[in-house]
Write a structure and sequence with these properties.
alpha/beta, five-stranded mixed beta sheet, 35% helix
Length: 117
Amino acid sequence: GKTVDLLAMSQDKPVLVYFWATWCSVCSTVSPSVDFISDGYQVVTVALSSGADERVQRYLAAKGYDFSVVNDKKGLISRQWGISVTPTLFVVNKGEISFVTTGFTSPLGMWARLLLS
């Protein structure tokens, strides 16, 4: 129910934007790293076509994830961003996309992209 303003968020520090899904097997190996990174960096995640809010919340609780989630139930946000593969990660810095990666990404890879942007 809250508005996420990536332009404002990314003015002082880069933001990691993570598109994922509860049904994505690769996401299940990347999400723990995103959760780890979210302790020290700004992270916004988008759950793509993963069901009702309650289902996504149960999934997060079962996995112990603390990152914030925008539930993209119908895939509208994902289509606006041109997402065709999960997981997909963006680094947004000062309102501009500085890095995009799809598939498996390690915590070191995420950290390096955030530092370099």
